[in-house]
Amino acid sequence: MKALVKQQAEPGLWLMDVPEPRTGPGDVLIKVLRTGICGTDLHIRSWDGWARKAVTTPRVLGHEFVGEVVSVGDAVRDVAVGDLVSGEGHLVCGSCRNCLAGRRHLCRGTVGLGVGRDGAFAEYVALPATNVWVHRAEVDLDVAAIFDPFGNAVHTALSFPLVGEDVLITGAGPIGIMAAAVARHAGARNVVITDVSPYRLELARKAGATLALDVSGTDIAEAQRLLGLKEGFDIGLEMSGRPEAMRDMVANMTHGGRIAMLGLPAEEFAVDWSRIVTSMITIKGVYGREMFETWYAMTVLLEGGLDLTPVITGSYGYADFDAAFDEAATARSGKIILDWTV
């Protein structure tokens, strides 16, 4: 089968013929239809410091996908041939304290699809049935392909109650934009999102942000003034991993404010912890999705009319992966889709 492979420990990707994945009695074999390009994939392509530590070559990339089930193992009961499915890209041990307690998203032994094991940038991918999400309701294929990052946005945005709250999102990447759409849909009063890319800020406006703020020229305090806020933001969603964004967020939170952090910093940085203590701010780290409560919430949000199409800005056949990755790496794109049927 054709697959997009990190064949060598150097920058670049290779489209290659590789064997179809093997499956066991508890596994599902899926014919891949569409995949989404993630920031993780961009890191692996560029072969940066994180990728060199996290990935062993050769490795088939990809963890955002939708496909059709073509075979199931003898022990599989709840997934059938012909089902349209996406997959939870975090594979857990099943035996640690958190897994046994049903908190699988907190497993210390998590292995990432397309990072620690071969992934979905291929004509076929294999997954344990326990990692497969069957789309029981009608869903656009491009949207189904990005259920993984959509889950990141939902898990982060719904970390705290949003109804009537003023929400600040730092970082208008695709997940930040999706989080803005979720927050508005879930009943937030105001949703302010910050970035320095005019293109992505415009995408955020289309997705429902109350105010999309270019912080290269306007500070967050000005956003408060424009919206008539007196005491700061109630909820913060940090999506950028940038030190200055986190510091600005802390400085603009109300007393008792709550912050969920999904953005992954490249290195350690200083934070005004005295401000966090004296303002009684709660900070929650978010990694991945809750399995499978977040997936259920994602489906319900879409059924309730949440529109993710503004965040999808490009689609390529898989053979044109270089052009697709080049576009995904710019600040003038949202989610980029690879079509594995052409």
From TrEMBL:
Question: What's the EC number here?
Answer: 1.1.1.103
Which UniProt keywords are given for this protein, alphabetically ordered? Cytoplasm, Metal-binding, NAD, Oxidoreductase, Zinc
**InterPro entries to which the protein is assigned, alphabetical:** ADH-like_C (IPR013149), ADH-like_N (IPR013154), ADH_Zn_CS (IPR002328), GroES-like_sf (IPR011032), L-Threonine_3-DHase (IPR004627), NAD(P)-bd_dom_sf (IPR036291), Zn_alcohol_dh (IPR050129)
Q: Does the keyword Ligase apply?
A: no
Tell me its cofactors.
Zn(2+)
Q: Which GO terms describe its molecular function?
A: L-threonine 3-dehydrogenase activity; zinc ion binding
> Which BP terms from GO are recorded?
L-threonine catabolic process to glycine
Subunit details:
Homotetramer.
The name on file for this protein is: L-threonine 3-dehydrogenase
- Origin species, per record, is Streptomyces corynorhini
- List the top taxonomic levels of the source: Bacteria, Bacillati, Actinomycetota, Actinomycetes, Kitasatosporales
This protein's gene is called: tdh
